[in-house]
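Researcher: Sequence of Rcc1 and btb domain containing protein follows. Predict its structure.
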Amino acid sequence: MSVKIFGLNDGYGLGVSTTEGWINELTVSEALSNGTEYLKIIRGYETSTVALSPEGELFVLMYDETVLEPIEKEEEKFVDISCGFNHFLAVNKEQNKVYSWCYDQTGCQFGQLGHNNTDKVDQPTEITFFTKLGIKIKQICCSAYSSFVLLENNDLYAFGFNLHSDLGFSDKKSKQLLPIKVISNCQKVFNSGFSRHSFYLDTQNKLWGFGFNGNGQFGTGNLKHLTIPTQIGFFDQKEISNVLTNTCSSVVLLKNGNLFSAGFAGTNGFSTASEVFQQIEIPKIKKIYGGYYYTICLSTENELYAFGYSDSYYYKYQQNGVVIKIPFTFKNKNFKIFCGGATVSCFIVEN
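Model: Prediction complete. Tokens:
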């Protein structure tokens, strides 16, 4: 199993031998290419890489190291992981416990670990709030400085940074140290780990948004922050497949393969900014993956397309606001792509 990467390599953290700050060619990660078929690989912004194995074990590639190390957590096994700029969440296989930790003080300064404080915790630590609720966990999701936990009863809880209603409610305090219920009819929440604006699908398949809107990323036609959950009317009667939130824009993929974006120039796939959603003309898209300032699209023919802001993307074929085709051919159909977390790096895993 080979893991290839491109993007930011500052301080290593990707498991390659080069000391170059940016890797502009697909390069094998020696540390991650150890035969394990990872379920998920995520990376914080200029921080550590965390990988989840099929056996439910966690591994970390520290910011300044080139060797993958196991994260010891007694007998606990995990089924999912998520990260923001510098904090991580994990849910156990029984889906009744949520754990959080960070490797940098910025990963806890707003209470995004959910432990009723801003103390640094560098090992997965149980958030007892959810254990006491006794309701199974449906989804975990991180924004840049906040955390979301969706329960099986469709209640969405949030904690962390809330300066511009990042958590879905208006509050003069910038920190929410304990989980608080913000939505009661949530089917799925969307945040790619590096933004301060979020979307969610309600139980009626309506798309809503809340949080920071300084670049028009909600497509509402203005730059007003959404201080309460607000329905995104543009997508009424449309079936949503996925939503990505990079730091300045939003990208929405419909089940019919059509792709739309709004927000900052370049990161929205266009050379000019847009405060309304516009369609991006890429044929037959089936999946999308998000990076800090860029989006990667996978077509039904397993072709890769990308668009974004090249000062952060640094893939050698990239141009600001221009959709390009990445000249990479998969060896077979058994591959995975990971861009999760606040990373400007991409991982491609294939046999």
